[in-house]
Amino acid sequence: MRTLILDSSFYPVTIVSWQKAMILFLSGRAQVVDVYQEIQVRSPHKQFQLPKVLRLFNKHLGSKEVRFTRFNVFFRDDFACQYCLKKMSMSDLTFDHVLPLSRGGQTCWENIVSCCPTCNAKKGNKTLEESRLKLQNKPKRPKWTPEMCFRLKKEDPEEWFTWIPFSKIPLAN
Ligand SMILES: [Zn+2]
Are 78 and 59 part of one and the same domain? Predict the structure, then answer.
């Protein structure tokens, strides 16, 4: 069981284990917005319903950094090859170093793009100019959004969809 955490202005911040959620709640740092009706948790003195959504009293979402992960790169690129714009599943997409590693390119937001296997083969160890491929978007570090950073599972509660615009997210298995 997991709990969705909102900041004080009801903006989704993160998803935590129910144990962590209980600590936030019992220490008075958060209020319950929604509960798992069917699940009770016992402390030595009391009995609670397990929180499904909690709101932190004192937290405003600052500028959070998006983690540089496989999923987040694909998500930034809308699961499309950045050369031919073909959309693909995560398992079929590959990464391309715009400036190849062998030419001093780095593995970072600004130099990594989602790429289909066909374009990747064409690009090989070439620079953009040498390959004559055209980048459709300039790769950069994306802004933090909950859709990017939360991986939802099929068994996660439907109520969370009230708080997060999840329509763009492929469900994790
Ligand atoms: Zn392509």
Answer: no
- If asked whether residues 55 and 104 sit together in one domain, one would say no
The rounded Å distance from CA 80 to ligand 1 centre is 8
120 Cα to the center of ligand 1, angstroms = 7
Going from the Cα of 117 to the center of ligand 1, the distance in angstroms, rounded, reads 7
State the distance from the centre of ligand 1 to the C-alpha of 89, rounded, in angstroms.
Answer: 13
- H-assigned helices in the chain: 18-26, 70-76, 117-123, 128-131, 146-149
Q: pLDDT by residue (tens digit) across 81-101?
A: 999 999 999 889 999 999 999
Please write the tens of the pLDDT for every residue from 19-36: 999 999 999 999 999 999
Q: How many domains would you assign to the chain?
A: 2
What is the rounded CA–CA span in Å between residue 76 and residue 113? 9
> 83 C-alpha to center of ligand 1: Å?
5
The rounded Å distance from CA 100 to ligand 1 centre is 17
Residue 111 is part of which domain span?
71-131
Say how far apart CA 117 and CA 115 lie, in whole Å: 6
Give the model's pLDDT for residue 165: 58
Centre of ligand 1 from the C-alpha of residue 156, in Å:
34
Rounded to the nearest 5°, which phi and psi values hold at 58?
Answer: -115, 20
